[in-house]
Amino acid sequence: MLLVSDEEERTLNLPGGDYEIPLVIQDRRFGHRNELQYVRGMHDRMTGFLGDHILVNGFPDFELPVATRAYRLRILNGSNSRIYKLAWSDGTPVTVIASDGGLLEKPERYPYVTLAPAERVELWMDFSGRKVGSEIKLQSFPFSGAMPHMGGGMGGGRGRGMHGHGGGTLPNGAGFSIMKVRVVRKEEENQKLPERLSTVRSYRVQEAENADPPRTIRLSVRPHSPRLNGRSFRMTAVADEDEEVVKLIPCS
After folding, report:
1. 241: part of which helix (H) or strand (E)?
2. Which of 10, 78, 66, 41 is nearest to 169 (CA)?
3. Max CA separation in the chain (angstroms)
4. Per-residue b/e over 29-46, b at no fewer than 16 CB within 10 Å?
5. Which residues of the chain are modeled with pLDDT < 70?
6. Which CATH class is domain 7-185?
């Protein structure tokens, strides 16, 4: 992980140091000699690699020891194809403070958040009201379909069992535990969640370079080939006169 901050973020006094925890979630598959296995056949190439072991920061059965205080959890979906539906096992709302685009304007609370491959999310989690020795799990809740909606109802969809097709591979949409959090010590730190996190400018259509008239780009797809205005991407080709050209305006 590359952790990037700026002056606006530093003024918030968010949890840092030992209380700012990077968490990289990955699913992996191992052979009989504990060697890493990747693509096993055409099915993996067509539908994407799915592992049957969930790792956090490279460790299976990951356990995070915490104190009775607030933490900042920086979570990255480092999986190749798996989607996670993140929720706390005891029903505590998931408090989101940042996403791929950086800090949100204000904290948002959801029953769960979904994370597709390469996406990240930052959570605020306060353990100050919990007893030493208590445990809570970060889980991926079951879902059916391609992807659950962000912050929708709990357990959206039928769900699926732990094992299915693919030779024992954990299917996308299965429910499982990602990691265990154990409260191991008491601290008196009483850090408060900021009401405002950042200032996000909302751009208006009138500010666009081509506000009148706007350019229409039609999205479509043919088998294994997304299209823009009916054309597919060509790696080494230069745009012809009749093709779409986007003018980039440098920011001041």
Report:
1. none
2. 41
3. 68
4. beeeeeeeeeeeeeebee
5. 145-168, 238-252
6. mainly beta
10-47 pLDDT tens trace: 999 999 999 999 999 999 999 889 898 887 778 777 77
Instruction: Using the structure block, give the residue that is written with the tokens 């879902």.
Output: 143
Q: What is the pTM of this model?
A: 0.78
C-alpha–C-alpha distance, residues 44 and 166, integer Å: 9
Tell which residue, 51, 66, 84, 110, has the closest CA to residue 177. 84
Token pair in block for residue 206: 């009138």
> Beta-carbon neighbour count of residue 138 at 10 Å?
24
pLDDT one-digit tens code per residue, 160-194 = 333 333 345 789 999 999 999 999 999 988 889 99
Handedness of CA 148, 152, 158, 159 (dihedral sign): positive
Give Cβ neighbours of residue 195 (< 8 Å, ≥ 6 apart).
106, 107
Structural domain boundaries of the chain? 7-185
Long-range contacts of 57-64 (CB under 8 A, 24+ apart): 57/22, 57/23, 57/24, 58/24, 58/26, 61/180, 62/178, 62/179, 62/180, 63/179, 63/180, 63/181, 63/182, 64/21, 64/23, 64/179, 64/180, 64/181, 64/182
CA–CA separation, 153 and 148 (whole Å): 9
Q: Residue 247 carries which DSSP code?
A: P
42 by DSSP, 3-state: which? helix
